[in-house]
Design a protein that fits this description.
Blueprint: H1 12-21, H2 24-29, E1 32-37, E2 40-46, H3 60-76, E3 83-94, E4 102-112, E5 116-127, E6 130-145
Length: 152
Amino acid sequence: MAAMHKAQDPDFSARVRASFDRQQAMLLIGARMAVIEPGYTEIHLPHKAEITQQHGYIHGGVVGMIADSAAGYAASTLTTAETSVLTVEYKLNLLAPAEGDLLIAEGSVVRYGRTLIVTRAEVFAVLHGRKSMCALMQQTIISVHGKKEHQR
């Protein structure tokens, strides 16, 4: 679990969920936002053949997608309602094949700044009820003021 953070927006959970629901990429791969707390989110991704690579593991690019979104939304839980966030960069280590019935990306805020927010995500594969880390990511987020998200 993440360190304790204070949300600036009392409606952060509804705002983050609405934003996640606008992400066509998450819909495409079948991911869902399972947990939203100040400074922490979880994205769950069930295994399906359409997102695997040639060995049958969930593709590393898809692992990166859910890590990026989980950590980015963790940052978004702490911003004001008028602030958007965008990823500036991330470093992803694929530690083991993403082999499981379910992937869980746990995003958390390491340091919250006015302009830059440093986050991390741990991605776990759940196979036969056993949870093991398959990826670790560190990310830099920029706070964007006055830029509204695209409305579908």
